[in-house]
Request: fold
Amino acid sequence: MTSAASLVAGIQEFLPCPTPETWVAVALRPDQEPTLLIDHANCEKKAAATALALMHRYIDNPVLLNKMSRLAREELRHFEQVIKIMAARDISYEPLSASRYAQGLHKGVRRQEPGRLIDTLVVGALIEARSCERFARLAPELDRELGEFYLSLLKSEARHYTDYLRLAESLADGGHLADRLAYFRSLEAELVESADTVFRFHSGPVTPQH
Ligand SMILES: [Fe+2]
Ligand SMILES: [Fe+2]
Reply:
């Protein structure tokens, strides 16, 4: 686990803040397990769709095409793994609204290129990093099957974070990228730390009604 621990340490350094313990307490409640898994499945599906959308938009960037193609395949594999666990637990795949998180980050993306791509990649890096941090935080406290699954996801999400960040670095000079990272880090901290209305994998802290 040393390698997983060092991966997570790098991720924690990149993120603006740790996940609030109030979010963790809700995520570990047995009555929230269906929501956690359904939203997790949705996130994997969305991550694959985002990578495919980038592949459609930026056909002139071979590094991006290769990285995103591989990433999309991995996210779809994760999706298959989540729905398999849901089926084994008799959790039916119900429609679930998305959390405010990804949309909140995308609101900060500039409209003009190359800013649009640079910002989208920075947002991708943050989402992957936060996913990795939450898997690491929950894994030791979940049942064995789910805990081992979340630990297994850690490494790919850490690699996805690196892929997004390296792609952003290849397109922006250091000073400019540092500014954009600072901007999106503070936006991310706000979304992660302020009270949210619904519990989701990437939500802020919530107090469920029941
Ligand atoms: Fe994933
Ligand atoms: Fe990922």
The two ends are 36 Å apart (CA to CA).
